[in-house]
Amino acid sequence: MSPTTETTTQTTLGIGGAAESTDMVLNIGPQHPSTHGVLRLRLVLDGERIQHAEPVIGYMHRGAEKLFEARDYRQIVMLANRHDWLSAFSNELGVVLAVERMLGMEVPERAVWTRTLLAELNRVLNHLMFLGSYPLELGGITPVFHAFREREELQNVMEEISGGRMHYMFNRVGGLKEDLPAGWTSRAREAVASVRSRMDVYDRLVLGNEIFRGRTRGVGVLSPEAAHAYGVSGPIARASGVDFDLRRDEPYLAYAELQDTLKVITRQEGDCLARFECLLEQTHNALDLADACLDRIAELPQGPINQRLPKVLKAPEGHTYAWTENPLGINGYYLVSKGEKTPYRLKLRSASYNNIQALAELLPGQLVADMVAILGSLFFVVGDIDK
Fold first, then answer.
1. From CA 84, how far away is CA 350, in angstroms rounded?
2. Where is the NADH-quinone oxidoreductase subunit D domain (predicted)?
3. What burial letters (b/e) apply to 79-117, b meaning 16+ CB within 10 Å?
4. pLDDT tens for residues 290-320?
5. pTM of the model
């Protein structure tokens, strides 16, 4: 042996059966407390370290896209309402926007502003669920009780106008089902103010908790390049520095007139903590946007809230694409019509479907103990993945 050659001896003690150095394959789910529903994760482990991760989906598949082809343009609103059950109003909105674009239909101004208001209230409802459930997954039970209290206040005003607590069915092609009840805007304003007054609890109770910060800071870092590659969108992408929001960059509804109030919240760290911070700040901004919409609705003259439609509604032959900034990210609707009363094809691009793919990038190299923190920080709904 030459004098320049160095030798290194490594000794490993107490590994037991792992001496064979075989990888372990661990299935998390499809029924598991950490998976937000029937999602399955197939993990390949080397000790406590994840080597490979594969999300396995399809356990909740309802075939909604195929069912669209057998329902007319009024009925498909009900099907599109349900895949992301925390964002029902926003789901309806994307479908009717696509049909209205195909028809070349102008919606009354009162409907435009009311839709914008309800979309932002729905955004708050969605985000509050994750603001409460994410700390719960990391062992903090208190925030979820606060989240459900705030959700109840907003659910009450949403239920008053639509009759539904989760699946509102309030959008219609050409506008909304009916005008707002007398005094509803005042009650909505009170609910928004009440929720805003208690939002600091998440800053103090969650972000101010050193255990929460220790479990999330620097964990599950998603690079902006990976976010682009996987088509990640919404607060998860913005937490990685992807400065994109359809409400600002391709305004729809009344967002072009709300640019002074709208804030696109971004972070550069791309970790679990950054994703939670983006979600929290976006909730604050959604409450501000709701107030701005209520101010504008109060100034509008009385008028129609929908268009009169023919008894049989048929879209002209052709195709169009509409997309919206849903609470969880970008939803896209590709509508193809053959001139009949049912869509020839309606392809749904849901936010969670793309976002969850990033797990294959995020989990390898991480500890099993950090898996739940990373999984929960992607803020997905399983129905939105499977459609």
1. 9
2. 138-311, 313-387
3. bbbbbbbbbbbbbbbbbbbbbbbbbeeebbbbbbbbbbb
4. 999 999 999 999 999 999 999 899 999 999 9
5. 0.90
